[in-house]
Amino acid sequence: MFSELTRRLATQPLLAGLAVALSVVIAILGLMPSVYAAQVMGRFTAHGQMGTLVTLSLGLVLAILAEMGLRTLRHRLLEGICLSADDSLSVEILSRTGEAARGPAIGALEMIAGTYSAAKIAAFMDVAAVVLYLAALWLLSPAVGVAVSAAMVAAIAVELALSRIAAVAGAGRDGARGGIFSATEAGTVLSAVVHWMDQGAAVARVANVRETAMGAANSAAYAFVLAVGAVMVVDGTLSAGTLFGIGLIASRAIGTALKAAGTLNDLKRGQPAMEAVVRFLQSGKGSAS
């Protein structure tokens, strides 16, 4: 499933290495809002010096702008890698495809380009940030590290379960679309179209439930971490400022992990198209199905 991603990165190792290095810097910059929250609650609220608040705020703005710029640069690097791979694959496929098989071949190429894209690769590279954030939380407090890890596992389990449901719904819609082309009589075609539209509505409902559940899971995880940290603040083992910073780190770590889990499902959905193209190239026949 990851072979195509690694193959694409291996074709241009220099650009891939730069993208990985940028991912590490992006992960570090992602800690800045948490540091800002901890510093504001610790230093500014204790002394009320506006100069301190302004300095910290300017530093945060610069960190946010730097992260945005590096994310854009990383996307451009990965985009160049993916476009080059898509172009090469398209030339190879279409030069060996007959007129009858051109439509399915283009459909498979479109699926591959959308699945193994720069955004998908970037989502997996951001897993390095999740590791960094978890390490930081464990260093700050092992108890908080356990709480965040448990909340993350639970949230990812919900995402994977809903992704599976979404995949089944998507397969039903694709099957209904195939039924339209296999229908022969006018009434049968109309019935097949209605069924296809109903399946499309079901896919949209599942997507809405998935999005809502992910927001709820992230919020619940954030609240759970804050509750654990609040107990430690009362016990005197954690400062209030640190708790604010921990909450932000935890929320970002869980959100990034959920995005990677969702991307994993996208790879599973696009894998059959990649396998079809590989079989076509190996067989040398004029069919990509």
What does this structure look like?
With 289 residues, the protein is an all-alpha fold. It has one domain (1-284): ABC transporter transmembrane region fold (Up-down Bundle), CATH 1.20.1560. The protein has 10 helices and no strands. Helix 2 (13-29) packs parallel to helix 7 (127-140).
SSE topology:
Layout: H1 3-11, H2 13-29, H3 32-47, H4 50-94, H5 102-115, H6 118-125, H7 127-140, H8 142-182, H9 186-235, H10 240-283
Helix pairs in contact: 2-4, 2-7, 3-4, 3-10, 4-5, 4-6, 5-10, 7-8, 7-10, 8-9, 8-10, 9-10
Domain ABC transmembrane type-1: 18-269
GO molecular function: ABC-type transporter activity; ATP binding
Keywords: Membrane, Transmembrane, Transmembrane helix
The unreliable regions are 285-289
CATH architecture: Up-down Bundle
Rg over alpha carbons: 24 Å
Which CATH class?
Mainly Alpha
Shape: globular
Number of helices: 10
Indicate the structural class.
mainly alpha
Q: Could you state the order of secondary-structure elements as H and E?
A: HHHHHHHHHH
End-to-end separation in angstroms reads: 19 Å
In the CATH hierarchy, the third-tier topology is known as ABC transporter transmembrane region fold
CATH-assigned homologous superfamily: ABC transporter type 1, transmembrane domain
Strand content: under 5%
Reported for the largest beta sheet, the result is: none
- Whole-number mean pLDDT: 83
State the main characteristics.
10 helices, ABC transmembrane type-1 domain-containing protein, ABC1_TM_sf
